[in-house]
Amino acid sequence: MHNFGSRAAEYFRRTDKLLWIVMLAISAYSLLLLKTVPKTGGGRSFFSVQLIAIVIGYIGAIILTLIDYRSISNYWYLVGVFCIFLILLTLFKGITIEGSDGVQAKAWLAMPGGLTFQSSELVKIGFLVTFGKHLDMLQERDELNKPLHVLLLTAHALIPMGLVHLQKDDGTAIIFGFMFLFMAFSAGIKLRYFAALGGIIAVMLPVAWNFVLADYQKTRMLIFRHPETDPQGYGLQQLAGKMSISSGQLTGRGLFVSPRVNSSVVPVQESDFVFSVAGEQLGFVGCVAIIFLLITLLLLCLRNAHRATDLQGSSICMGFFAMVFAQTLFNLGMCLNLLPVMGVTLPFFSYGGSSVMCLYFGFGLVQSVMIHREDGRNSRRLFE
Q: Which helix (H) or strand (E) holds 217?
C-alpha cells in the first residue's frame, strides 16, 4: 500500500497540478448545474449520466497520461483508420435525430442500455493524434511548408470535416476546422497559405450558401440578430436563453428554486444552453466563474504547448486548446445572441456523455505531453 502511495505521489508530482485543480473545479461546477436541471420523462437524470461520463473520462485520462504520447502517435495509421470507420459506421448504422426546425443529424450510435454515443467526439481526440503526427513527420523531413504537403495537410483535415458534414453535423465540422487552423499555424505553416485559404473560402461562400447549407441553417443565420421576429420558432431558444441569463442579475435567483430552470423554459437547457442555467441561478457571478475556469484551462494548455519538447506534443496541446476555445466561443456566442444557433456544446459543462468523456481523454493527452516531455529514451517509466 505504501509502495502504491509513493508511486501515486510521484505520478501527480510530474503532472500539471494546476491543470488538475482546474479540471476538478470544472467537473464539480458542471455536476452542480446539471443537478438542478429537471429531467422530464424516464431514464437516468442528467446528473447521473454526467457523473458516469466524468468518472470514465478521468479513468481514461489517467491511463493516457501513463502512456507516452509518442507511443500512441506511432500507431497514427490505426487511429486514423478507426476514426474513419467510426464515422462511416455512424453514417450507415447511426441514429437520426429530427428537430422541429428541420435538423436531421445522424451523428449517434446506439449503445446497450438505451444509451447513445456521438462518434465524432472521439474522432476529435483521434485527430489530435493523427494530425499532430503528420505535422511532426513533415517537420523532421523539413517539408512542412512545401505546397504539396500543405495541400495534403488540408486534405487530412477535410476528411473528418466532410464526413461529419454528411452526418448533418456542421457545428462539429467547424470545430475540426479550427483545430486544423490552430495546429497548422502553431507548427509554423507560412501565412501565405492561410491567406490563400481565406481567399478560397471567400470565393466559395456563395456556393456554400446556395448548395451546401440547409434551409434551417440559412434561417438561423438570417434571424439570430432579431430573434423576436419569430419568437415561437427559430428565435425561441435564444430569446428564452437571453431572458434567463438576464433574470439572474448579479448573484442569481438561487439553486433549485429558479422558476425558469425548473419549468424548462429554455429548450435543451441542459446541453447547448447550460450557460442560461448558470445565469439564472447564479447570476453574473456564476457566468463569470464559468468563463474564468475555461480561460484558465486554455492558458494552461498554451503553457504546456510552449513547454513541449517536440512539435508532436505542442500540436496535441494546441489542438486541444483550439477544440475547447472554438466550442466555448461558439456556445457563448449562441447563448448571448451574438452568433446563430449551431448545435455546439459548452465544453465540460454541457450535458452529453460522449462529449464530456472524450474531452477528458483530450485532457489526458495534454497531461501525457507534460509528463513525458523528456526524450523517450531518458524518461522514467511510471508504475513499472
A: helix 215-223
Angle between helix 353-371 and 274-307 (nearest 10): 20
pLDDT tens track for 11-52:
777 888 999 999 999 999 999 999 999 987 767 899 999 999
Backbone angles phi, psi at 105, to 5 degrees: -85, 130
Measured distance CA(244)–CA(261) in Å, rounded: 8
User: Which CA distances in Å does 21 have to 15, 17, 280, 293?
Assistant: 11, 6, 26, 10
Q: What strands, in cross-sheet order, belong to the sheet with 116-118? A: 95-98, 104-110, 116-118
Identify the three-state secondary structure at position 109.
strand
Q: What pTM was estimated for this model as a whole?
A: 0.93
Percent of the chain clearing pLDDT 90 (strictly above): 72
Measuring CA to CA, which residue among 380, 383, 378, 366 is closest to residue 72? 366
192 class by beta-carbon count within 10 Å (0-12 exposed, 13-18 middle, 19+ buried): exposed
In the structure grid, which three cell numbers stand for residue 234, read together?
Answer: 427559430
Is the pLDDT at 367 greater than 90? The verdict is: yes
Q: Is residue 257 classed exposed, middle or buried when 0-12, 13-18 and 19+ CB atoms within 10 A define those classes? A: exposed
Strands (E), the chain: 95-98, 104-110, 116-118
